[in-house]
Amino acid sequence: MRVTFNGQFRDALVYVERAGERLAEYQRQVSSGRRLDRVSDDPSGTTVALGERTKMAQVDQYTRSTDSAYSRLTVVDTVLSDIIVKLTAAQVAGTSALGSAVTDAQRAAAAQQLDGLKAALLDDFNTSLQGNYLFAGTKSTTKPYVVNGSGTVAAYAGSTTEVQVDVDQDRMVTVGFDGGAITQGSDPSDVFATIDSLITAVNAGDSTAIASGIAALANVFARVTTAQSRVGAAMQTLDAQKLRLSATKIASAERLSKVEDANIVEAITGMQQADQAYKAALGATAATAKTSLMDYL
Question: Which residues are 171's β-sheet partners?
Fold first, then answer.
């Protein structure tokens, strides 16, 4: 049975088209460096790639949360260190007013120093970052401590519920603290009322009350150091988390690259072979087009 001229020519064109498509595909891989361009290129590979991209997006989100939490805790740690210095100074000022040899002028100076330290502590506990108060719990937009009309510091206005943020699927860190738990805890008065009482005792030369005030400040000091230890532990956790997230993203990127990226050496070799096949197909088609009707008689 003879093959008709039209059929032979049609088959030749199909070969040319296929060879051209194969050549164009390898050219795309070489120029873009990507193996996958459409879902049809590799459906199973595309599914893997989508999964890796979703995972990398989650890692990026947790990385941003981790960085933000670390920055916030760095500020908290600095503030707590400053509070510890001021509490130490307040205890020293109170101690300097003890004893019968202390003059009225010395007591007045100690009382004045305590008043200044109280104002400085108030500023510390009202520290805010980007409009959020660090020691107001979940009431982060509410100033935790304000001075009322009588000049004394009002009761804690923040929340006893602390603010936590996710830094991984099953890991959270505290970034907003209950200021009342630090300034007062289980004591009958907060640090501001304690200093007010201590100032009164210093002015009056009441050694018993002064000693009581110093002991109360020591309780506050202990709570602050405990809070700072929590912050330090959280920052260490975040340091480790940063490394883990970085390693996770690198591994995911490597897996994605194996699925999506082209092997340039193989792509160039394939492109050369496809180019030869394409030229051969064109040559065969050209030869077919020259065949006359006499060749089939």
Answer: 168
